[in-house]
Amino acid sequence: MLEFLSPRLKEAVSHVDQDDLFELRIRTGKPLYGNIGGRYLPLGRCGPVKIVQNALHPTQEEVDDTLFSACGYSVHAVENELRQGYVTAAEGERVGIAGTFVYEGGRVLSVNCVDSLCIRVPHAVKGCAEEIYRRCLAGGLRSLLLLSPPGRGKTTLLRDLARLVSERTGANVLVSDERGELSAGETGPTSDVMRFANKLTAFTAGIRAMRPDLIVTDELLPEDYEAVRRAAAGGIKVFASAHLTRYEDVPSKLFDRYILLKGIGEIGMLLGEDGNVLD
Fold first, then answer.
1. Last residue of a domain, which of 120, 139, 155?
2. Does some domain include residue 97?
3. 107 and 144 assigned to the same domain
4. Are 245 and 148 in contact (CB under 8 A)?
5. How many Cα atoms sit within 13 Å of 174 on the Cβ side?
6. What is the domain-level CATH number for residue 235?
7. What are the start-end ranges of the H helices in the chain?
8. Interatomic CA distance for residues 276 and 159, integer angstroms
9. What are phi and psi of 157, to 5 degrees?
10. Residue 36 falls within a domain, yes or no?
């Protein structure tokens, strides 16, 4: 994991327990920060430091080298991902980028002068979704939508839910992994994975070709709900997540249960299909 980091950055994170490292923030000429156990801490060459001035300040060359390595040393091979503001590294680490976006004809042509990277480190936390399974799925498969701001463990929970359903029910599970991080871990013996296809393509092709009982996907946008609607019309259940904090803001109410997370993997509130609170 994180083998693509430039040498000084790799040395800094080598002094951090990888199980506790959720995110790495690399900004040109600014302090290096890591989200360690839910707290953002400045990182020096030997790990976390108390004084921010003692943190590493990555150079532009280190940012460039890290991104180039994360791209597998071929920017052209991942240019479609880069135009969407991220690239997925070899072990499922999602590298978000900030820089100068260049447009042509109303669409992103390229991204130049990248000077900030946000690296999300995937974790397989076996058993973290047990409470959701017990409260929502013990009586049979239902469609679930996890709601929270970024960084509350939605992807980790979805991955573990896919594993639990696969192992305990033998259902055919299709993992629609648009960014290459949802399947970075164990998803169960009866799961199939479609990587880097947008949700409409994955749902349409997957339903036709793979006959899933359940589709698991991540980070729904408003335009993705039509794909969910098509799956539901065919009797297929869907587990998904969205960067939302209120039931009222969900664009289409297509799910049987809505789970509002209050912490990393913690259920804050469980709602039924009508939006009413459940015990």
1. 120
2. yes
3. no
4. yes
5. 24
6. 3.40.50.300
7. 7-13, 60-70, 79-83, 130-136, 154-169, 199-210, 225-233
8. 26
9. -65, -45
10. yes
- For the chain, the domain total comes to 2
Structure tokens at 221: 């946008």
Q: What percent of the chain has pLDDT over 90?
A: 72
The per-residue pLDDT for range 197-208, each reduced to its tens digit, is: 889 899 999 999
Do residues 104 and 135 make contact, with C-beta atoms less than 8 angstroms apart? Answer: no
- Does residue 56 contact residue 32 with C-beta atoms inside 8 Å? yes
Write out pLDDT tens, residues 4-15: 999 999 999 999
Tens-place pLDDT, residues 215-254: 999 999 999 999 999 999 999 999 999 999 999 999 999 9
Determine the 3-state secondary structure of 257 from DSSP: strand
**Same domain membership, residue 62 and residue 179:** no
User: What is the CATH classification number for the domain harbouring 14?
Assistant: 3.30.450.90
Residue appearing with tokens 């199939």: 192
Q: Domain check: are 147 and 266 in the same one? A: yes
Q: What is the pTM of this model?
A: 0.81
Domain that holds residue 108: 7-120
In a domain, 81, yes or no: yes
Tokens of 131: 């409470």
Q: Looking at the structure, do residues 261 and 156 belong to the same domain, yes or no?
A: yes
Which residue spans within 39-162 are E strands per DSSP? Answer: 39-44, 47-48, 86-88, 94-104, 107-120, 144-147
Q: Which two tokens stand for residue 42?
A: 């400045």
Residue showing tokens 């058993």:
127
Closest CA to 227 of 174, 171, 155: 174
- For residue 278, being part of any structural domain is answered with no
